[in-house]
Amino acid sequence: MSSRAAQKNEARQARLALEAERERIARRQLRWRRLAATVIGAAVVVAVSVAVSSGRSGRPSAATGGSVSGVAFSRDLFAGVPQHGTRLGSPAAPVRLVEFADLQCPYCDEYAVQALPTLVKHYVRAGKLQMEFENLSFIGPDSVKAGRVAAAASQQNRLWNFVDLLYLNQGTENSGYVTPAYLRRLLTAVPGLDVPVALHASGTPTADAALARANQLATQDGVGATPTFLIGRTGGVLHPFQPTSLTPAPFAAELDSLLGGRK
Predict the structure, then answer these.
(1) pTM of this prediction?
(2) For the chain, first and last CA: distance in Å?
(3) Whole-angstrom Cα distance, residue 128 to residue 117?
(4) What domains sit in the chain, N to C, each tagged with a CATH number?
């Protein structure tokens, strides 16, 4: 496994292991409140170590017919954060970040697993950053199927929840894993989303128009790969941003620079 793939897998498994540990503690906290304070740290370390050593392929996911991974973590990440269509965060935020992505893209997945939670927690929630997701859906038929459902979720202002869960449960590109059952499982895990309405909307011309619009924007902005990021002050000209890695650090450095050093 390449160092990039290993890093991505480690981040994914750490995120899911932390969620699993938190849920386990919640179930037991009434009986074990005092003991939990002592054992949580060690338990999390053990859980992460086991998850990383076993690898992603060792545990069923929504892409292989299993349960949806990362539900609680994803729910809490976006809880209370305003969404409007493809946008996440306050429209009054001083900085805007646009991501052009494909839902099958493994590097987009890497960014979603490693960098996104930090950006949401420390910049979007603080009212400093508004993010926008533009879905290109060019890798293959599974991209288009998932993209239509993402467009439907955006009509209910739940796109970011759906996309995050999809990345946490991403399968091998063009393997046919994006089935109606897979998409329904993801939609069902999105809080506050009307699943039948979303499934119906995903088959309408409006969903196709959303994908066509993203492709037009990509052509207009010279985007030829995913993920591609545009960033800048809100209301100003956005410029291409090529992070040195898909970890939080390069994004934070760029954001802090645009924000004038304010954290």
Answers:
(1) 0.79
(2) 36
(3) 15
(4) 3-58 (no CATH), 62-258 (3.40.30.10)
